[in-house]
C-alpha cells in the first residue's frame, strides 16, 4: 500500500514499497515435530552485528511444486528482481542431500529430479538495497543504520511454488537469532518463545516491515488496537508527538470505522540514512499493518500538522489495507483516494483541519481536484491509471480517487437527504467485507446503491471505468456549493447563493455528516 504523495514547501512523501531485512533464523526449533508449528513453513534469520549487511537465512518449506519463488512486487525494474540480493542459495532434502536447480529470471529457481515432501533452504541476503536507485528512494527497498536494520519480508523470504497465492491463509513460523541487546519489532503475532513469530498468510509474511536492533519502543492501547511505536534510540524524541496524535485520532477513527480488523498496528520511524545515492529526505509508506517513516531530523511540534495527516491516512488503512483487484486492475483509486478523503474528513471533524482548508486547501477538495485535472491521462480511466500509478499516473489515481470520493459523498447526501455519507459507506464496506482483499469493483457499486436507494452504477461506470473527467462542480452544486473558475482553472469553492432552506440544510449535512459528528464524543 502506498502512502499518498504529498508535496509541500519542505517535504516530499513518497511510496515506500520495501524495506530491508537483516535477520537470522534458527531452524532447529522450527523442525521440532512436537510443536504445533511442525506442519508450517519455517524460517530462521540470523543477524551478525559484525556483518550487519549480510543476513543468513535457513528455511524448511513444504514442497508445492518444482519452483522456488521470490517474485514479489516492487523490484520488477531489476532484471533479477529481489533475487538480485540473494547469495549462496542451496537446496537440500531433509537428509542433507543437495538438490540441483536452474535460475529463472526474475527471482525464480526450478528444481531438478524427484523432490521430497519437504525442502531445506540455506541462503544469504545482502542488505545493499539502499545503494540502488529505487523509484521512490532507498526506503523503497531497505536501509541499514548503526545497530539498526529495517527491511520488508519480500526482501528476504523465498517460498515454494510459482508466486504463491498471497491471501492463502498459510501459516509461517519466523524466528530470529540476534544479539541479546537487539529488539525486534514487527506486525506478526508472538508465539511465546523469544524472538519467535507467526505469520498467518503469505501476504502477511511478505508485506511486513521488520525493525531489528537497538531501539526505543512505546506501546499504547486504543480500544481493541495495540499501537506499537518503535524508533532508533536517536529518534526517540519523536515518540511523544506520535503518541499524542494517535491518542487524539485513533479512538475517533475506531468509532467511525467500526471494530478494527487487526489488533496490532506498528509504526516505525528513524533518521534517514545517508549514502552515495541519496541525501537524507522525508519519506514514508505503509505495508499491511506497519507504517514506516524516515526523516532528516526528529519531527517536533512544528510538524504536528503534516504528521497528523500522514498518521491518520495510514492508520485508516487498518480497515482499507488491500486494493481490490479484478481482471488485473488494482482499485487503488478507491483504496488510496477514499482513505485520503476520509483522513481529511476525520481531521476536519476533530477541528484539526479548518473548514476553509477542507474546501480550498492544497490537501482539501480544491487542491486535490486541481491535481487530478492537471495529472489525469485523458486516454485512461481511473482503474487503468492504477496500473501505472508509479510511472506518471500518481495524481490521476490518488487525487482522482479523492475527487470521486467527494462526488460520491455529495451524491449520497443528495439521495438520502444528508443521512448517508462516505463515512457510512466505508464503514459498511468494512462491516460486510472486513477490510479484506476479496472486495470487488461490483461490491463498491452495490454497497453504494444499497445505502442510497438510488442508481449509482452509471456514475461509477462513467467516471471510474472510462476516461471521462469527473465534473466535480456539478456534484458540489447539488449540495449547495459552487466551484468558481478563473478561466479554465478551478479557483475557489463557495456557498451557493439564493439557496432554498432544503439545500441549506443539505449543505450543512454534507459538510458535517452525522456519520462523523455523532462519534466525536461517543464512548462506544
Notes on the protein architecture:
There is one protein chain. By secondary structure, this protein is α+β, with helices and mostly antiparallel strands. 30% of the residues lie in helices and 25% in strands. The protein is built from 15 helices and 27 strands. The strands form 8 sheets. A 5-stranded antiparallel beta sheet has the order 3-4-5-10-7, with no helix packed on it. A hairpin with a 6-residue loop joins strand 4 (41-47) and strand 5. Helix 3 crosses helix 4 (304-316) and helix 5 packs across helix 9 (394-416). It is globular and about 85 Å long. Mean pLDDT is 86; it is low at 1-38.
Which labels suit this protein?
524 residues, alpha+beta, five-stranded antiparallel sheet, five-stranded mixed sheet, 30% helix, 25% strand, globular, disordered N terminus
| CA-CA gap between termini | 29 Å
For the largest beta-sheet, the strand count, sense and barrel status come to: 5 strands, antiparallel
Estimate the mean pLDDT confidence. Answer: 86
Helix/strand class: alpha+beta
Taking pLDDT < 50 over at least 5 consecutive residues as the criterion, the unreliable ranges are: 1-38
Shape: globular
Largest beta sheet: strand ordering: 3-4-5-10-7
**C-alpha Rg, in Å?**
24 Å
- Count of helices? 15
Helix content: 25-40%
Report the β-strand fraction as a percent range: 25-35%
Number of strands: 27
Task: Give the gist of this structure.
This protein is an alpha+beta fold and 524 residues long. Helix content is 30%, strand content 25%.
Amino acid at each position: 500500500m502506498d502512502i499518498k504523495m504529498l508535496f509541500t514547501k519542505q517535504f516530499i512523501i513518497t511510496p515506500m514499497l520495501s524495506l530491508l531485512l537483516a535477520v537470522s533464523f534458527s531452524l532447529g526449533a522450527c523442525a521440532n515435530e512436537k510443536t504445533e508449528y511442525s506442519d508450517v513453513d519455517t524460517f530462521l534469520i540470523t543477524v551478525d552485528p559484525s556483518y550487519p549487511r549480510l543476513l543468513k537465512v535457513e528455511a524448511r518449506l513444504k514442497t508445492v511444486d518444482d519452483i522456488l519463488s521470490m517474485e514479489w512486487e516492487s523490484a520488477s525494474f531489476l532484471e533479477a528482481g529481489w533475487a538480485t540480493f540473494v547469495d549462496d542459495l542451496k537446496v537440500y532434502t531433509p537428509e542433507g542431500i543437495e538438490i540441483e536447480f536452474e535460475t529463472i529470471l526474475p527471482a525464480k529457481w526450478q528444481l531438478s529430479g524427484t523432490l521430497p515432501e519437504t525442502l531445506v533452504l540455506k541462503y544469504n541476503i545482502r542488505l545493499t538495497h539502499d545503494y540502488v536507485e529505487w523509484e521512490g528512494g532507498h526506503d523503497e527497498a531497505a536501509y541499514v543504520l548503526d545497530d539498526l536494520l529495517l527491511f520488508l519480508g519480500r526482501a528476504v523470504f523465498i517460498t515454494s511454488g510459482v508466486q504463491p497465492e498471497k491471501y492463502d491463509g498459510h501459516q509461517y513460523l519466523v524466528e530470529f537469532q540476534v544479539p541479546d541487546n537487539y529488539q525486534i519489532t514487527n506486525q506478526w503475532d508472538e508465539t511465546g518463545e523469544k524472538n519467535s513469530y507467526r505469520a498467518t498468510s503469505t501476504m502477511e509474511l511478505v508485506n511486513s516491515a521488520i525493525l531489528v536492533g537497538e531501539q526505543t519502543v512505546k506501546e499504547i492501547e486504543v480500544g481493541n488496537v495495540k499501537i506499537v511505536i518503535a524508533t532508533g534510540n536517536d529518534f526517540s524524541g519523536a515518540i511523544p508527538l506520535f503518541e499524542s496524535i494517535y491518542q487524539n485520532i485513533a479512538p475517533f477513527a475506531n468509532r467511525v470505522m467500526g471494530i478494527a480488523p487487526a489488533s496490532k498496528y506498528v509504526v516505525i520511524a528513524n533518521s534517514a540514512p545517508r549514502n552515495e545515492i541519496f541525501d537524507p529526505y522525508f519519506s514514508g509508506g505503509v505495508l499491511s499493518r506497519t507504517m514506516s517513516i524516515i526523516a532528516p531530523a526528529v519531527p517536533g511540534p512544528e510538524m504536528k500538522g503534516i504528521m497528523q495527516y500522514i498518521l491518520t491516512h495510514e492508520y485508516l488503512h487498518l480497515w482499507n489495507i488491500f486494493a481490490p483487484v479484478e481482471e488485473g486492475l488494482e482499485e487503488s483509486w478507491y483504496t488510496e483516494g477514499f482513505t485520503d478523503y476520509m483522513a481529511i474528513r476525520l481531521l476536519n471533524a476533530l477541528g484539526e483541519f479548518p473548514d476553509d482548508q477542507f474546501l480550498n486547501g492544497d490537501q482539501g477538495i480544491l487542491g486535490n481536484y486541481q491535481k487530478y485535472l492537471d495529472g489525469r491521462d485523458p486516454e485512461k480511466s481511473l482503474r487503468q491509471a492504477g496500473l501505472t500509478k508509479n510511472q506518471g499516473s500518481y495524481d490521476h489515481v490518488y487525487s482522482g480517487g479523492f475527487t470521486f470520493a467527494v462526488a460520491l459523498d455529495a451524491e449520497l447526501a443528495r439521495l438520502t437527504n444528508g443521512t448517508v455519507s462516505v463515512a457510512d459507506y466505508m464503514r459498511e464496506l468494512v462491516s460486510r467485507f472486513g477490510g479484506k482483499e476479496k472486495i470487488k469493483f461490483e461490491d463498491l457499486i452495490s454497497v453504494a446503491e444499497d445505502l442510497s436507494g438510488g442508481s449509482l452504477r452509471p456514475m461509477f461506470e462513467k467516471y471510474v471505468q472510462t476516461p471521462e473527467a469527473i465534473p466535480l462542480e456539478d456534484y458540489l452544486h447539488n449540495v449547495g456549493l459552487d466551484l468558481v473558475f478563473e478561466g479554465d482553472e478551478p479557483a475557489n469553492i463557495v456557498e451557493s447563493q439564493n439557496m432554498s432552506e432544503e439545500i441549506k440544510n443539505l449543505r450543512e449535512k454534507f459538510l458535517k455528516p452525522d456519520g462523523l459528528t455523532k462519534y466525536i464524543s461517543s464512548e462506544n
